[in-house]
Structure formats: structure tokens, C-alpha cells
């Protein structure tokens, strides 16, 4: 047995020890050992240390307590169920239907053995593997014939920019398309919507912002208005009916070279998708909605989300202020020179983080994989754990406190100035410049 | 955007059946397949998965057997039964039917159907 397997087994033993053993629990444990081992191997590819990979493997397991409880209580219920299903007479004719051996005729249809022949509930006919007929079409042997009798046989998926040459497709529900362009300028572009799905992409223009609006009703009153004052160009969603819902999907194309652009977006309800955005300022205010970003580059960014998550890859921002009231932050590959992050209820996870700043989480965990520090880093979590992967080739000072739990720091070349269970300070390496400060009120602090 | 848990919850079993209908698999691999199929948009943690496996095994849609890995823990493989095959096909049909209706109910305009 490898040492990893041994450690996995030991950790599982601790979890399982609360329950009365039975064969089902033993089987589950065996199953978990194999799965966790493979998860560990997968995490080892990206994680630096053994402990870290092991923690991550157990993390993704989720909450197994409820299944353990269930299994520890349901010893023999399996067998009882099998008994009841076999007690049926060979011929059984009643109001429920006709059963002869394994031929069943009832309101569900006609079935022979496990094969359903005529299925009235699902309106289909099927003979073995050879013939299948249902309301969509028929398959005979290898041929498929589609029935095309539907009112509008649309496909329902919103086709969201997959085609390389085309930045977007018209949504199938769109009844109106409103397109307009605005020349770029040094003023702030303020984009205001009440209820829309907003998509940013980079267009092929050099000095024009292109805006395409799609609405599920055709009425020019719904189209956006553009106003301009001394420092802002304001794009504002048109009338919004009180009594019924108008679906709106907005595509905003920015020139790839518009790196001086100042953009602010407000959306009360709806998601924001951002792809390949380059700007000087990119501010976001979402009341209920998610920010989904792919390759976002800006000098400054203020992101405020009341209820919704941030999910992004390749974020490159000089100075960012992120405030999420209710929701998680999940970013992969982030270079944020200085970040101020506040999350009231939700967790933060950043993989491959280069930067510095503050993370303040009220109720939730912090998981950072730090690539490089650009300045000091300060983390506070009120009720969750803090888990950090320290930078690979960078020395640093540290001060970690876990008020009600433990601080663990597994690293080489550590010099402690204080070393208690709940508090550790000192530095790693020989030439520390920046400091990582971590405080967990209720949870633990772990550094890999 | 994350897919709403309420929206997808009723489909957990079908999702697993669909994956197993393409070949026998074990817990960790199924959870990876779900991530792949959803292009990383959806994740079922293993705890949920194991609960669903137990449920499906009890109802007779899947059965399990131990792999013969010589080291590193033996994997428990799950395989679709004949009943499971029928159920996944049924569920797919139900879904193709339902998604059109639901989509109309959620975003259709009444005047189009006058």
C-alpha cells in the first residue's frame, strides 16, 4: 500500500468512525479510496504539495455525512424490496390490467418482459432494438425519420457565440433587432439596462462601438436611447412594460484597440458576459445576475454585485475593487496588481493569482493559489477556512491567526518568530519583501 | 452564470444514466464526464453522486461490479441494466418533448398562438 493510500484510508477512517460499521459502509469506503486516489493524482499535477492535493481531493468529495448516515441505518432494506416484487401470480386479470407471465397490458401500454412494446404514456412504439417510433420520429434499423409536424420546430438553445467569424447569432425568440453605432470618445460610456442579458465582445472596427439589441417584442419604444452630457455618453434601455415580460439580449462590440475606453455597466436583472475586453476603466453594477468573463483587461475596475457570482478566466487588472454581497467569486488566471475584495456571503477561489491586496470574506472560504505577490496580501475570513498555496519562487513574511482553530504551514525554509497552534508568524526563504497576513475567526488557516 | 440547482436537480439520475449508457464507469470518472459534458458549467460533487448510485442500484437501473486493479484501491464500476437503458431512453424522449413546451411557457408570446 502506498503512503498516499494509507493517508486516504486514515482520513476516511476518521470520517467513518462515527457510524456503526456494516458491509455497505465498507464497500463505500473501498469505492472512495479508489476515487480519492485518482482525484489526488489529478490534483498533484497542479498542486505543489502532497497535503494540498490531498485536501483538494477531499474537498471535492462534498458532504458525504448524509449518505453515511443513510447507509449505516439501512442494513437490510435492500433485500426486503426484492421479495415484494416477485410475488405476483402467473395470470392476473384485474381493473389494473392484464398480466400473463411477463406480458403486461395496462394503462401504461403493452410490455413484454423488460421490453416496452407500446408505451401509451410516452406515446411510443418499440420492438427490441430494431424499431422505435415516438412523436419526434421513427428509427427503423439504422435509419431515422423525423416527423416535422410541430408548430414551430425551433431548437431552444440560445446559440451563444460559438462561430468564430460571427460574434453572435440572432436569438430564436427575437422579434426585433435594433443596431446602432457610436464613435469612440474619451467620455465614459455608461450602459444602463433594467433587465437584459448583456454581452461584450471585441468587434472588427477601429473607432466605432457597435450595439445590437434583440427584443422578444417588436416595438421601437423598447429600443435604447442615447444621451450625452459633458462627461458621459449614456445608453439607456428604452421603455420597459410593467405588465408583461420583454426579453432583451444586448451585444456590445468594442474595438480591440480601445484601451483608453471608460465603460460602466448597470444591469438590474440579467447576466453579463464579457469576452476579450480591453479598456481603461470597466465598472460593473449588477443587482441580480452573474458576471461571466473570458479575457478581461483593464486599468481600473469596480465590480459591485448584489446577488450573483463572478466566474472568470484570464483577468488582467491594475486596480480592482470587487464587492459581492451574495455569491461566489471564482477566477482562473488573474493578474490583479492591487485588489480589494469584499464578499458578504459566499466563497472566493482564485487559481493562479498574481497580485496583492485585501480579501475580506464574511461567511465563506478563501482558496488562493498564489503565483506571485506584487505587494502585501491581507486575508480575513469570519466563519470559513483560508487555504493558500504559497508562491513557488518568492520569499515572503507571514502572520497567520486562527482564533478558534489551527494554523498549519508546511513549507521548507520557514523561520518562525512566533509558533503557536492558532498563531504563526515569521518568514519563508531568505529574502522576504512582501507580507501575507491571514486571519480566520472561526475556521482554520492552511498554507501549502 | 451557474445553472440553477433547482432546475437541474430532477435530472441527476438521467444525467448519470446517460453517461453510463456510453460505457461502464466509476464515481470519479462520472463526475469528470459531467464536467466535460457541461463544458465545466456544471459539477456534481461525489457525495451527491454516490447517493444517486445507491438509489439507481436499488431501483434496478444500474448494477455494479469491482474492477481488478491490482493496486491503489479497487474501483467500483457501474453498468446500465436493461431497465436502465429503457429508462434513459424514456427520459430523453420526455425531455425532448418537455423542453419545447417549457421554453414556450417561459418565453413564448401569447399572441403568436392566437
What does this structure look like?
Chain A has 448 residues and is mainly beta. In chain A, 15% of the residues lie in helices and 51% in strands. Chain A has helices at residues 3-16, 23-46, 50-59, 65-73, 77-86, and strands at 91-94, 97-100, 103-106, 109-112, 115-119, 124-127, 131-134, 137-140, 143-146, 176-183, 188-195, 197-203, 208-215, 225-228, 232-236, 248-255, 262-269, 272-288, 291-307, 310-326, 329-345, 348-363, 366-381, 386-389, 396-402, 407-409, 414-419, 423-428, 434-440, 445-447. In chain A, α1 (3-16) crosses α2 (23-46) and α2 (23-46) packs across α3 (50-59). The longest helix of chain A has 24 residues, at 23-46. Chain B has 114 residues and is mainly alpha-helical. Helices cover 57% and strands 11% of the residues of chain B. The mean pLDDT of chain B is 88. Classes of the chains: A mainly beta (448), B mainly alpha (114). The interface between A and B is large, with 50 and 39 residues.
Task: Compile the SSE list and pairings.
The complex is a heterodimer of chains A (448) and B (114).
Chain A (H helix, E strand, L loop, with lengths): L2 H14 L6 H24 L3 H10 L5 H9 L3 H10 L4 E4 L2 E4 L2 E4 L2 E4 L2 E5 L4 E4 L3 E4 L2 E4 L2 E4 L29 E8 L4 E8 L1 E7 L4 E8 L9 E4 L3 E5 L11 E8 L6 E8 L2 E17 L2 E17 L2 E17 L2 E17 L2 E16 L2 E16 L4 E4 L6 E7 L4 E3 L4 E6 L3 E6 L5 E7 L4 E3 L1
Parallel strand pairs in A: 11-15, 11-17, 12-16, 12-18, 17-18, 18-19, 19-20, 20-21, 21-22, 22-23, 23-24, 23-29, 24-30, 25-29, 26-30
Antiparallel strand pairs in A: 1-2, 2-3, 3-4, 4-5, 5-6, 6-7, 7-8, 8-9, 10-13, 13-16, 14-15, 25-28, 27-28
Helix pairs in contact in A: 1-2, 2-3
Chain B lengths: L4 H5 L2 H9 L4 E2 H11 L8 H14 L2 E5 L9 E5 L1 H26 L7
Antiparallel strand pairs in B: 1-3, 2-3
